[in-house]
Amino acid sequence: MHPFLCWLPKCLHWPFCPGVFIAILAVVAGAVTFWEHPPRWVKAISIFVFLALMCSEVWMMSKDRERNDSDQTAARTASENNFREIAGEITASIAASDRNFAATMRKSDTITSGVADSIRTQTGGDSFAYITLTAQAGYLHFEEKDPICQQSSGSAERDPAGPYFQVAITSHGKYPLRELHATMMDDERRLAAVAEYNKHPKGDWIKAISSSDTEYRCLYLKPQSPEGPSGDVEMLGTYPLPMDDSKRLSIAFRSLNGYWDETLHLGLVNGKWRQCLSIMGPTAKQATNPFIYCDSDWPEGRALAEKDWEQSNPKH
Fold it and tell me: What's phi and psi for 139, nearest 5 deg?
């Protein structure tokens, strides 16, 4: 079928397509043109018809424009609604993805934290131990059976009938300590060892000096807990009382979690021995913020302990 015959029926029903009134106006104008001497009333009617057809065409064009604008608005609204729906689905998908990622990260953090905590439990984490010396009367003796901690080398002679120091080690922290080694160095005994070596300077001077040190070993120390808030306390042995009314000992520790150092101050106050100690390490944070433990009735000892690590922890 010819294209003209396809669109003609669509344009000849109401509302007409734009241009129909122009076509009618053209036909009427042609007819009037071929009429050489039309009567006056015909001319008047023709003018009226021309105006009516022109106004009808303008009105029809406005209706077509209005319909087109309405269609465009509807299409734009549908497009915007579709876009909002797609954007909402994308937003919901992103939110769901974020929630899944956060849940995965929380699970990963939990697993990582559990693994890290397990490693710290095996190595000791940031836990440490310190040694204390407590004066005891000569008639008191502590019997040990299968000790977990004990003195491994070195010895200091003491009066078996007189008073002495009981050496103990205490854990501090939430993780247990394994394979702990401690070396206690006494400057007075080292000077005496050097003086003795100088009398016979043929041996190994390093061995001669280190012979004045006391070595301790602990296979295992339990951590602090609600049942034992003060930590695990194990006896290590005995140590003689000094000749003077004060003493300073240096103790180097090593374990699976690293190294740390203790400085132990002893002082005779009103006939009773008091102690105060400071610990640096094993972590970097603990190295800049040393742990201090003192007898409450010896403030002078705390002042000494607070000065132990001033060079390693400068104040800005």
Answer: -85, -5
Query: What is the distance in angstroms between the CA of the first residue and the CA of the last residue of the chain?
Result: 99
Distance, in Å, from the CA atom of 253 to the CA atom of 207, rounded to the nearest integer, reads 19
- Report the candidate in 32, 234, 26, 247 with the shortest Cα–Cα distance to residue 148: 234
DSSP 241: P
Single-letter amino acid, residue 295: D
pTM of the entire predicted model: 0.62
Per-domain boundaries in the chain: 15-64, 75-123, 125-306
Sheet hosting strand 233-240, strand order edge to edge: 128-136, 164-172, 233-240
Q: Which two tokens stand for residue 213?
A: 């040190």
Q: Cα angle vertex 160, ends 157, 163, to 5°?
A: 95
Helix and strand numbers, DSSP H then E, in the chain: 7, 10
User: Which tens digit of pLDDT belongs to each residue from 282-313?
Assistant: 988 888 889 999 999 999 999 999 998 875 55
CA–CA separation, 58 vs 19, rounded Å?
Answer: 9
Cα dihedral: 276, 282, 288, 293 (round 10): -20
